[in-house]
Write a structure and sequence with these properties.
The protein is α+β, with helices and mostly antiparallel strands. The chain has two domains: 230 residues, no CATH class; 87 residues, Roll (SH3 type barrels). It has ten helices and six strands, in the order αααααββββββααααα. It has a six-stranded antiparallel beta sheet with strand order 1-2-3-4-5-6. Helix 3 runs parallel beside helix 8, helix 7 packs antiparallel against helix 8 and helix 9 runs antiparallel to helix 10. 32% of the residues are buried.
């Protein structure tokens, strides 16, 4: 029995590695093709394009692993069921659950591995991809790598510092503006917030210090023309895909300290935990389906797996969207669909006849 189990485990691992790497390459190529026009227009070389594809592929691996787990386990055991191998194992007294026991451990390992890929491989490489893309398109370094404790170079030599930048809302909080003339500070402006109003930035609760004549003025509002449209700066900000769980949590804590509750960040935090667990649940579900009463072969099971994967991805994306928009609680938005899949998978595995 141990030899049989070992053979199935080896077959699954081999198919899983080949399928995951192949799908990552394919999806990475499609993603690269989708944005290749801007890269080529920016004068990207063949090496730049290859590097960009190399940097974005791990992100696709992260998202593909749950589907790959489902595909591969259904292929392996669907073929075994069609060839009556499982019937033979039952007839010689080999417990079918004993055959699947190592795959429980494999599912746990895959889920942990998926989380670690997102933390330590996908996030930093996606940041490199966006840095490279920005450098090619805008011919400058991507000098804004975060949205807390931000330093910006404004128009007319102004230097801007903000404690928090909220790119989706176009808001800078706790902002200080240093204007320079003849290599000396000519004016310092401090404001509690700076808000983009469609065509201009407006400072609120302003203190204006003139360093040349040592005067101070307090204003409720002040139009500031030293910053460009926030769209320019949004190209440079970090997005959740570029941030590990710990980095995203730290950013959330900074936002919370300023009294700002960003629903999307909270949803993404929960999703960074819930999504890797999907790999474990899809593996269990694949075992349950492939050992059921239908006698479809590997290709039939692959078709079933693709259908399940598409339905799951659509439901999961819709659930996250409800969380982003504030309709659903962040935890409910990130965990409802994985929890439903988990319950279905565990039930299906429990009902596998010995």
């Amino acid at each position: 029995m141990n030899i049989i189990v070992k053979n199935y485990v080896n077959e699954f691992i081999y198919v899983f590695i080949v399928a995951t790497l192949s799908l990552s390459v394919i999806f990475g190529a499609f993603e690269m093709i989708g944005g290749i026009d801007r890269l080529l227009n920016g004068g990207a070389s063949i090496i730049d394009i290859f590097l960009y594809w190399f940097y974005i592929s791990p992100k696709d691996t992260y998202y593909i692993i749950p589907m790959s787990s489902l595909l591969c386990v259904m292929f392996v055991f669907g073929r075994a069921a069609k060839d009556l191998e499982l019937v033979v194992i039952k007839s010689i007294g080999g417990g079918i659950k004993r055959l699947f026991a190592p795959f429980i451990l494999i599912g746990v390992v895959i889920a942990i591995m998926n989380f670690l890929i997102g933390e330590f491989i996908s996030a930093p490489l996606i940041q490199k991809a966006h840095d490279l893309r920005h450098k090619i398109i805008y011919k400058t370094e991507r000098d804004m790598f975060k949205t807390d404790d931000v330093w910006l170079k404004g128009e007319k030599g102004a230097i801007i510092h903000a404690k928090i930048y909220l790119p989706n809302e176009g808001i800078l909080k706790n902002i200080s503006i240093y204007k320079v003339r003849d290599n000396n500070f000519s004016e310092i402006i401090e404001a509690k917030s700076c808000i983009w109003c469609g065509s201009k930035w407006i400072l609120h609760d302003v203190k204006r210090y003139n360093m040349e004549d040592s005067t101070q003025v307090e204003l409720q509002e002040l139009v500031f023309d030293g910053l460009r449209s926030p769209k320019i700066y949004n190209e440079r900000e970090l997005v959740p895909d570029e941030m590990s769980f710990s980095a995203l949590y730290k950013y959330f804590q900074v936002l919370k300290a300023t009294g700002y509750n960003n629903q999307k960040i909270i949803v993404d935090l929960f999703a960074k935990i819930s999504y890797p667990l999907t790999s474990f649940f899809t593996l269990l579900l694949g075992i349950a389906i492939s050992t059921g009463r239908h006698r479809g072969g590997g290709l039939v099971n692959i078709g079933i797996a693709v259908f399940i994967g598409l339905v799951y991805w659509f439901a999961y994306t819709m659930s996250l969207s409800l969380g982003y928009s504030g309709i659903a609680h962040p935890m409910i938005a990130a965990w409802t669909v994985p929890a439903c899949l988990g319950g279905l998978s565990i039930y299906g595995y429990y009902k596998i006849p010995e």
